[in-house]
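Shipment paperwork, digital attachment
Item: protein structure file
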Amino acid sequence: MADAAPRLATLAEELLGGPLPVRLRAWDGSEAGPAGAPVLILRDRRALRRMIWKPGELGLVRAWVAGELDVEGDLYEVLDRLSGLLWERDGDSPGLLAAARDPRLRAAARSLLRLAGPLPPPAPPAEEVRGRSGGRHTRRRDRQAISHHYDVGNDFYALVLGPSMVYSCAYWPAGGTGGTLEEAQRAKLDLVARKLALKEGDRLLDVGCGWGSMALHAAREYGARVVGVTLSREQAAHARKRIAEEGLADRIEIRVQDYRDVADGPYDAISSIGMAEHVGAVKYREYADTLYGLLRPGGRLLNHQISRRPEPDEAAYAIDPFIDAYVFPDGELAPMGRTLTTLEDAGFEVRDVQALREHYALTLRRWVANLEAEWDRAVRLVSPGRARVWRLYMAASAVSFERNRIGVNQFLAVRTPASGTSGLPLRTRVWDEKA
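Attachment content:
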């Protein structure tokens, strides 16, 4: 008799203390749960073993990446309904194993163990980060982390990001409708350039330059002379190719270099778009000090950075286990206020902060749509597991931005000289007039 799903539903509701938010379909074809709800599919009982041994987010993710767990219906709705599990920061509690420590629930836990089949659990999927060396945010370990995320193939990123090759949130028109992803990304690059007041001959340092899109825009549209730095050799090779094709090699230099090793300042402006998340809390003041030292007096910094909500106890903050193990190893998010304070501590005068949270949610949904439309090709370019990682991470991130679990902000800061002359207009939002 096919009864795995009803048994699972009963056990899960006992262990989790509430009704299931989704419908379940088990490996034996049985189903249980609310009718009409999106379906969570357990294709193999190995998924249960992963979740028992690693309750919470990481066990679910391992089963997803391995293809043992899948979704039928709206992925975004499933993620939203399961958010209590997927965004749980403590790897052991709450969860099935933690709940099983309650004497009242031990019988249910034993039944779940019998249903899961022989132990121990399968090995983690090959896409999971392992074998890290050195302390967190050393130069060597940062190179390894950047390589894990970015050196997966430029063709794969082109499929996901589209022709703009911009891997940060676009800047959408009012209402979020109308226009293409490429147009919205161009609008974002132009927003950054206008905030920095770029003009002919200015020296711009683009920290974490990606595939060269900001550097190209600044040189082509504003006549800036640009140095872009990245730790990804694949990104650098692609950026140099694009620059040569546009005939801008005399204006743009792309380096495979740690930002801490840049020593040819001063620059008139610095852009850091989606890079500071890799820096880490223990290094963030060093990051701010380094960029301050590379600017001329009166020079501007545009720091575009994802933020998280403050924790009641900041000392208890932990890196999200899925993101750390599969997406951005060692990546850390800081509350917006901490970023602002650190920039001020380094000597910057922060003149403007613009929240773009909803813009990132719209962007991520476009990236997911690009990936899903070219799914078979994406799998050929990377692997089934890697493609599943990117689909889950981008969709879950979209939901997080939509629900205000995380945000993204642009900080415009100035190395204001002793004279106090910032060089900014009295009405600072003039850069938005062209949006």
